[in-house]
Amino acid sequence: MRERTTEANNLIEQEFLSVIREYERVIYKVCYLYATPNAPLNDLYQDVILNLWKAFPKFRKECKISTWIYRIALNTCISFYRKEKNVPEIVSLTEEIDRTVETHDPINEMLRQLYRMINQLGQLDKSIILLYLEDKSYEEIAEITGLTVTNVATKLSRIKDKLKRMKKEE
Asked: 80, 77, 73: which is closest to 25 by C-alpha?
């Protein structure tokens, strides 16, 4: 019984590898169209192959194999693209502030110090304080972060206290 399962798996694996070899250019073409610096070609290709492998045993041959491959490749790449689109670009606050301020101005030096301290906070705390510094209301911050208004107020108070402690430690 176990030998039959192993033989069947080997046959499926060989058939899959044959299909991949035959349609390798198609897969690369689709991946190439969706490749970006955050979603490199090889990463997309690997995800498509993985999804094809997972779906291969369920392929019912109701359509051409090329149609099926295109569909999975496109869906995989589009999903990858959507995920990437929702990930904000991370920019170092200290570098950004350094570009916009002069070095000898005491106010600008304090701003630089504040942004350095903010950069040391966790992602959620950093988001909350930056929204606060952008003059967003507690309600707006709550809506953006998915927290309650009370939670935003509490977190903001703790963040301010943490920044004050950081300032004293410097």
From this structure: 73
pLDDT per residue as tens, the chain (170 positions): 555 678 778 888 999 999 999 999 889 887 877 777 777 889 999 999 999 999 998 888 887 788 788 878 878 887 886 776 565 555 555 554 455 544 567 777 887 788 788 878 877 788 788 768 767 789 877 877 778 999 999 999 999 999 999 888 87
Q: How many Å apart are CA 116 and CA 62, to the nearest integer?
A: 59
Q: How many angstroms separate the Cα of 155 from the Cα of each of 121, 122, 135?
A: 12, 12, 16
Tell the residue number behind the tokens 């304080």, with chain if given. Answer: 129
Hey, what amino acid is at 74? L
Find tokens 């950081």 and name the residue.
Answer: 166
| H-helix segments, the chain | 2-34, 41-55, 65-85, 93-100, 106-119, 123-133, 138-145, 149-169
pTM (global) more than 0.85: no
**What CA dihedral angle connects 121, 127, 133 and 139, to 10 degrees?**
-130
Which of 101, 104, 138, 53 shows the shortest CA–CA distance to 115? 101
